[in-house]
Design brief:
Layout lengths: L8 H49 L6 H84 L1
Helix pairs in contact: 1-2
């Protein structure tokens, strides 16, 4: 039985490639987001550790300069954490955008795949129908030749 070529095969191949590309973009965005999130957790843990150390050493500090150094360091760390949180939010939005783009690419591909499946099914049904008509015709011709 002859296979009918799907008219939109090139478009389907393009959509498959596009989905693959969008999947890679999403994976990179997710990796960036996770790395930034890990960095944020690390910075927050460092800050907590430093705060604990400061509380323990608070009574041992002998001059105001040491207190000022701790205060400046805490301030800088808070700013770093705030910046990292903003970076995580930006990367989270970028990851969500990439996810949405990937979902749309997947939907577009699936639409064409289902169309291809439907066309293949219709073609097979038409071929089966033609084959049945042909077999019926052969049966009729055999019957006709026997009755002569």
């Amino acid at each position: 039985m002859a296979e009918k070529r799907f008219e939109l095969e090139q478009v389907l191949k393009y959509r498959v490639d596009l989905e693959r590309m969008r999947s890679r973009e999403f994976a990179v965005a997710k990796q960036d987001f996770e790395h930034a999130s890990d960095q944020l957790v690390l910075k927050e843990n460092q800050m907590a550790s430093l705060a604990s150390e400061f509380c323990q050493r608070h009574g041992e500090l002998e001059c105001i300069e040491e207190l000022r150094m701790y205060a400046n360091f805490f301030s800088r760390k808070r700013d770093e954490i705030k910046d990292q949180k903003e970076r995580v939010e930006v990367l989270g939005r970028a990851m969500d955008d990439r996810r949405e783009t990937l979902l749309n690419a997947t939907k577009d591909k699936k639409v064409l795949e289902s169309l291809k499946d439907r066309k293949t099914k219709e073609f097979k049904q038409a071929m089966n129908q033609k084959e049945q008509i042909f077999m019926d015709e052969i049966a009729i011709q055999k019957k006709g030749s026997r009755s002569r």
